[in-house]
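Quick one: co-fold with pyridoxal-5'-phosphate.
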Amino acid sequence: MKFSHPLMHDNFSSRDMDAVVKLLKKKDKILTQSKNVALFEKEWSKWLGVRYSVFVNSGSSANLLTMSMMKILYDKGEVILPTLTWVSDINSVIQNNFKPVFVDINPMNLCMAENDIIKKVNKNTLAVFMTHVQGFNGFTPKLIAFLKEKKIILIEDVCESHGATYKNKKLGTFGAVSNFSFYYAHHMSTIEGGMVCTNDKKIYQLARMLRSHGMVREIDDKKIENKIVKKNPTLSPKFIFLHPGYNFRNNEIGAVIGLSQLKRLNKNNKIRTRNFFYFLKKLDKSKYRTNFITKGSCNYAFPLILKRANFKNRDKLETILKNNKIEYRRGNAGGGNQLRQPYLKKYTKKINLNNFKEVEHIHFFGYYIGNYPSLDIKKIDKICKILNSVKYGY
Ligand SMILES: Cc1ncc(COP(=O)(O)O)c(C=O)c1O
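Sure, here it is.
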């Protein structure tokens, strides 16, 4: 179906195309991971404000790589996870044999609820894997202080929140590791792609190895590499596999697109933020939630959430969206409450969904619609007029 208001529009500019063509026209070119990947990682680190970044082939690969690093470094423990997140945040935890512990959301930012996290921390808690949902910051001073005091590892999923901040510092600079996605409709895209970011040199070297089969030659420090080579005299120095890794590499085409898109990321984020606040201003507050905590937020898709839990209202909204060719996804991030998904059955048998009321509301009555840089105020006026015209029942 051709949408009048899609989730994303025109995310590949003529400048992006020129950058790719320039690369392809080069003689003796290397298109697999090479200089442009290294340059994109450097520029991304500079933009974000971290020491190290590792470009991978998706945000999900970034998640899996991160939890595999946690397995190597810490072996076991509980990981506190959101119920509203992308599936790979949870998969990466269970695939590495950590125990998932689930938390309900704060309805005002869709991120894990501070008090529920604190309640579920115990002596076995290894890490909190925070997803900053749909551009909202999930941190609070109380949570940050608590995790620091308890020495709990903080991991950030910033796949939906490039450029959002907490205390004027970009999200993705607080955790031991932070992950980004450059998938189609996100703040910027490299076709497929993700980034693992850290300030920790040991984590950085590990991430580089795990991205490429666990190979020691990927270590970015000759001293460390030589030490390991010396310890393994029977092995070919170029083929020492220190840990069970993956092939999560991206390539030069993704990197030049990333470099090109990064140049307009701040500008695009400004437009998206303007649009986000305009949606909030124009939407009928008696029908849709507008009382979000917006400080530091940087939204890429507008969260359209019905105020009332009413299935007839939901059907009316979906009919209006369909009839007006407004593309939408129900369940906000990742299709709603992950606890309802079949892949998690083994872990959710004893869970009472009544203890997850906020994510349950989003599961049935929460949506997102597009908020992309070419969207203008006039069009938002039109969309809000349509949305506000729906006659909901009580
Ligand atoms: C919060 C979150 N984490 C992780 C991912 C995974 O990213 P990717 O699609 O690049 O695998 C997504 C995907 O959209 C996401 O929204």
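If it helps, The longest strand covers residues 125-131.
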